[in-house]
Design a protein that fits this description.
The strands form six sheets. The protein has a nine-stranded antiparallel β-sheet with strand order 8-9-10-11-19-15-14-13-17, with helices on one face. Strands 3, 4, 5, 6, 7, 12, 16 and 18 form an eight-stranded antiparallel β-sheet that branches. Strands 20-27-28-29-34-31 form a six-stranded antiparallel β-sheet. Helix 6 packs parallel to helix 8 and helix 7 runs antiparallel to helix 8. 34% of the residues lie in helices and 24% in strands. The chain starts with a strand and ends with a strand. By secondary structure, the chain is of the alpha+beta class.
């Protein structure tokens, strides 16, 4: 390694090893700078205003008496202990709020302020952050509501959150407080706080208009309330926190970004209800309105039910599966344009995974809208292919292909083909210079900052070129098909050769799984099914599951992606590993990118990753059926708990590469009745039906049994029903 003396750049100082500098691209430098800046700012504010009340992620770990207590001897103060929260919008907004396990609501688009609810009774301030073991956080998968319940010291508290829309998109909040022995000094606080789930500070001014029922945050009316408070108390970095403040004022400013205010309500009766509104648009003020909140909650429940009825529906006697399936559908509905902001490679990678899941959910219009928007934003120089732009373009092509194989409409391709082909030509200029897949270079994975094998990125390029060849064939442009197919075969040979190299086995487990299993399905079709199954099985044998990153914790993304591959490969132990992964998901349904292996709390990354949800949704759908190029496969690794007497299963309006399909299964009287609804656009070449035990097919007149392999049957046709007699 050589050293380059002289002035350094970025975060690397004055003397920087030149090889190390080459590791980082702009996105990774920005990734580091963001957290260095955030961690240092948090540390300074925490020490300067140490007597403030803090959010859950900091309050618990900063307390030596807490089970979650930990030390922060370094200069950076970052959330690595409760990095988990629900994301929420009204299915219409372009942005969202976040809600942590204690019910703290943080403002839209990463705003650095939050709304909390405190209760003062018998000379004690109660905050849910301080008693998390008594808090039950959940998501109603039918109505879409977030519900927080808590009981302590003779007090019961329920917080409900739903979506709404006036002239702006907004969230409505209902809070019920029941104090068994309310005294003359009992109060309820709606506290506006200067922090969110990752950052401290940033709230410079608060103004409360009690007459209009509006709280202005940094000059914008972003919080509404329907009951005039008995008092408004304010605090700041210089005045101190509101808990200790006697300053009755309708406004406060703080140059440190530590402004805070409490709407204070006297609890002079046992039970009281309060209602609030939070804008989903950081740039638009809420109108002063009076709502019938019960009607609003009811309407949101009906709206959720209507949106969930669009596209795929699945009902099983397995309630855990059904609830997680509905939650995953809700999370797909919450994907918004903020999720695809920025022009880094990560935003294009997200696009592909979102489109992949949305197409399988039947949300084609939404998938196309996101794809079209990202395509319009993509700027590149056709004559000068740059690595990062090539990877972005690869994800655009793959997104286009996903939409097409599900819609199968030539009109869709005619709209986008020329632009997609232009991107493919750009990628082609780069790919022809690839002669091996293990050259040292930057990886597009922001969590892997070191030089590593570039197998992953070569795989993306290969897959995109393969997809373009197929799209050209669908358009009937056989010259394009042949050109890109030949390049696809060349890259495939390079990748296959790399897999067979002796030194490939020396790559770390993290690099291996992130390389070969980084996409949600098999793309190296030169590999036979048995080879693929053997490869996936060897990975599982060589690592613990779920996958644990040595620095960040349980890697939920790659654990879910690998599980998708296990089901696709028909790995017999898939259902056991599925249950192990599901242990990290509770009724609040948060999906952090990384989870502390022992504490089982979010430790790093996005606190509720929609890209992970996209993979989880695809996984749940793949447990029901997989639509490969060659066949439709039902129950790829059948769960024995689904095949007991009295069990039922129903899948409706499921999008597939063969068109919209529906199926139902009932098990009774020692017989399995499998019904197929409607008629798909294209009849699958084969239908493979996997069963967990031996059976005999009861012959019908609208299908042909081509083969029986163990407990499984291959049939042809699209039968109205197939019946099996259980041996």
């Amino acid at each position: 390694m050589t050293e380059k003396k002289g002035k350094g750049s970025g975060a690397f100082g004055e003397v920087v090893p030149s090889d190390i500098k080459e590791i980082f691209d702009n996105s990774k430098e920005n990734y580091l700078k963001k957290f260095l800046s955030e961690g240092l700012s948090n540390r300074i504010l925490f020490e300067k205003f140490i007597n403030f009340r803090w959010p859950l992620w900091l309050e618990s770990v900063a307390s030596y008496s807490s089970d979650a207590g930990r030390s922060y001897p370094n200069l950076l103060l970052l959330n690595t202990s409760f990095r988990e929260w629900q994301t929420f919008n009204n299915y219409l907004s372009k942005s969202e709020i976040t809600v942590d396990r204690s019910g703290m609501i943080s403002g839209p688009s990463g705003a650095r302020w939050s709304l909390e609810f405190w209760i003062y009774n018998n000379d004690r301030m109660y905050r849910l952050q301080d008693e998390l073991t008594k808090v039950k956080s959940s998501r109603n998968t039918g109505t879409g509501e977030i519900i927080i319940n808590w009981q302590s010291g003779g007090i019961s508290f329920t917080e409900r959150i739903a979506g709404s829309r006036s002239s702006v998109d907004e969230v409505i909040v209902s809070v019920d407080v029941n104090v068994r022995k309310a005294g003359s000094d009992s109060f309820f606080f709606a506290a506006v706080r200067p922090y969110n789930n990752t950052s401290l500070g940033g709230l410079t001014s608060i103004e409360v208009d009690s007459g209009a029922g509006i709280v202005s945050i940094n000059g914008k009316g972003l919080i509404g309330f329907d009951t005039r408070p008995d008092e408004v108390v304010t605090g700041s970095g210089t005045l101190g926190d509101v808990e200790y403040s006697d300053r009755n004022s309708d406004s406060v400013q703080c140059s440190y970004g530590m402004a805070t205010a409490g709407l204070k309500y006297r609890l002079d009766s046992a039970k009281k209800s309060f209602h609030f509104r939070v804008s989903l648009n950081a740039g638009a003020a809420l109108p002063g309105l009076k709502f019938n909140y019960e009607n609003q909650f009811r309407e949101f429940g009906l709206f959720s039910e209507m949106r969930l009825s669009e596209g795929i529906k699945a009902e099983l006697t397995d309630n855990d599966f059904s609830s997680l399936f509905l939650q995953s559908r809700l999370s797909l509905l919450n994907i918004n344009h903020d999720d695809l902001g920025g022009d880094g490679t990560e935003s294009f990678r997200k696009l592909y995974f979102f489109v992949y899941a949305l197409c399988r959910a039947g949300s084609f219009d939404t998938a196309e809208a996101f794809f079209s928007s990202k395509l319009d934003s993509f700027i590149y120089d056709r004559k000068r292919p740059v690595f990062e732009e090539v990877i972005k373009g690869s994800f655009l092509i793959k997104s286009c292909n996903e939409i097409f194989i599900h819609k199968r409409e030539t009109g869709f391709l005619q709209v986008y083909y020329q632009r997609i082909k232009g991107i493919a030509e750009f990628i082609y200029r780069y790919s022809v210079e690839i002669h091996n897949s293990s050259c040292s270079g930057r990886s597009t994975n922001v969590h892997n900052l070191a030089i590593s094998e570039r197998f992953t990125d070569t795989l993306y390029i290969f897959s995109a070129i393969t997809d373009l060849s197929y799209l050209a064939r669908a358009m009937g442009i056989f010259g394009d098909e042949s050109k890109f197919k030949n390049e696809s075969l060349r890259l495939q040979s390079i990748l296959s050769e790399s897999l067979n190299r002796e030194d490939f086995s020396r790559i770390t487990v993290s690099d291996r799984e992130s390389s070969i299993l980084s996409l949600p399905e098999r793309v190296l079709y030169s590999m036979k099914q048995e080879e693929y199954r053997s490869l996936v099985s060897s990975f599982i044998a060589s690592l613990d599951y779920p996958v644990v990153h040595p620095l960040f914790g349980v890697d939920m993304f790659y654990s879910a992606v690998i599980l998708n591959h296990l089901y696709t490969a028909g790995f017999n132990d898939s259902n056991r590993l599925y249950k192990q992964l599901m242990e990290y998901i509770d009724d609040f349904y948060v999906l952090p990118e990384f989870i502390d292996y022992k504490a089982k709390r979010g430790s790093w990354g996005d606190g509720n990753s929609k890209i992970i949800n996209a993979v989880i949704f695809s996984l749940l759908r793949n447990r029901l059926f997989i639509d490969s190029k060659d066949r439709l496969e039902l129950f790829p690794v059948p769960d024995s708990s689904w095949f007991k007497q009295g069990c039922r299963l129903k899948v409706e309006n499921a999008a597939s590469r063969y068109g919209i399909i529906s199926l139902a299964m009932d098990i009774s009287d020692k017989e399995i009745r499998l019904s197929f609804g409607g008629s798909p656009k294209y009849i699958p070449p084969d239908i493979l039906i996997n069963l967990p035990y031996n059976s005999s097919v009861i012959q019908g007149d609208d299908f042909i049994v081509k083969k029986k392999i163990g407990h499984n049957y291959i049939i042809s046709g699209w039968p109205s029903s197939v019946r099996f007699s259980i041996s």
